[in-house]
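Input record, target 12 of the design panel.
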């Protein structure tokens, strides 16, 4: 796209620089992996959306947590963008034969995650505890935190009525027109253990190129999270950087652009920058959107224009390095 990329080979992150990334599923997982490749594991914390979590066949399913963990463990299925590599589907086929619902694709190996998570939670463990344990077993060294241990299911208001998130996203394939969202019971949710501590200690907060409406907003809406980031922005000039999931008016994957349109907003990098508003100090946008840079800067944001499409693991690392080098400190 005529985007001159700078060489980042020799970039070294500051030895004590602590980074907190807020992530949904695929876009979040990709950048989280890029960050994990370039910094010591104890300097990175990823806080993951649980608004998509739901119960299916009695199992507790956490799609975004699993996408982030599978990706960090390099077990992810790069073709589908979700689930495990080398997955098989015997259980789903057998369920189909029984006339059971099969719109949510549960792979045989993936099922083990949901079975064991559900068993442990029924035995009294929190989602946080289960996640920490799974990460240990999967060899994920990065600290992956659930945004909250409370249930805060996302509801989608549409022209076909109010739908649960997975009903909208998977079953109805994002076809209904969206008019708004609700994160159920969010007023009662508290950040999971470690979340506010990580934000208090962060030298940089990154909002990954995840869906602003249904991946990042449900994290920010949990009591104390947005406020902690805002307070530290004001008091210690904490750098907070978002990466646009919208490129040339489109998403790489998923309904974020369609959602903006249906809510009466032009899907664009500028719209995403406006979405987060005063929370941000910096904004990363794709070369294809370079003509909007002045408008984003007019919001008072530092900008980084680069190739933001993470095609492979090296591309994820390169983007992470560039963000750290260009927007990673207060200067
Ligand atoms: P989900 O929970 O799996 O839907 O994933 P997220 O909310 O984390 O990510 C969805 C968003 O990621 C979409 O809006 C995509 O445009 C964005 N996305 C996915 N891959 C990339 C990428 O390589 N670069 C950028 N900039 N955005 C991406
Ligand atoms: Ca998701």
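The sequence produced for target 12 reads:
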């Amino acid at each position: 796209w005529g985007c001159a990329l700078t060489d980042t080979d020799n970039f070294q992150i500051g030895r004590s620089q602590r980074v907190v990334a807020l992530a949904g599923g695929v876009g979040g997982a990709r950048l989280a992996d890029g960050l994990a490749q370039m910094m010591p594991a104890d300097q990175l914390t990823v806080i993951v959306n649980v608004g998509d979590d739901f119960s299916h066949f009695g199992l507790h399913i956490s799609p975004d947590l699993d996408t982030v963990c599978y990706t960090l463990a390099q077990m992810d299925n790069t073709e589908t963008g979700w689930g495990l590599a080398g997955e098989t589907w015997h259980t789903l086929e057998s369920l189909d034969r029984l006339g059971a619902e099969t719109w949510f694709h549960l792979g045989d190996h993936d099922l083990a995650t949901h079975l064991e998570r559900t068993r442990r939670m029924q035995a009294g463990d929190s989602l946080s505890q289960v996640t920490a344990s799974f990460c240990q077993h999967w060899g994920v060294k990065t600290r992956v935190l659930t945004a909250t241990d409370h249930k805060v299911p996302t509801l989608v208001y549409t022209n076909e009525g109010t739908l649960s998130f997975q009903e909208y996203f998977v079953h109805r394939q994002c076809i209904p027109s969206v008019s708004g969202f609700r994160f159920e019971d969010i007023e009662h949710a508290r950040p999971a253990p470690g979340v506010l501590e990580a934000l208090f200690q962060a030298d940089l907060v990154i909002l990954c190129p995840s869906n602003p409406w249904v991946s990042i907003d449900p994290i920010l809406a949990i009591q104390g999270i947005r406020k902690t980031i805002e307070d530290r922005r004001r008091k210690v000039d904490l750098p907070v950087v978002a990466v646009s999931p919208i490129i040339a008016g489109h998403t790489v994957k998923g309904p974020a652009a369609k959602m903006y349109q249906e809510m009466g907003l032009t899907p664009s990098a500028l719209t995403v920058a406006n979405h987060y508003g005063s929370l941000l100090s910096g904004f990363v946008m794709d070369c294809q959107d370079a003509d909007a840079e002045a408008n984003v800067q007019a919001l008072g944001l530092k900008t980084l224009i680069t190739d933001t499409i993470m095609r492979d693991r090296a591309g994820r690392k390169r983007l992470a390095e560039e963000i750290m080098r260009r927007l990673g400190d207060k200067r």
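The mean pLDDT is 95.
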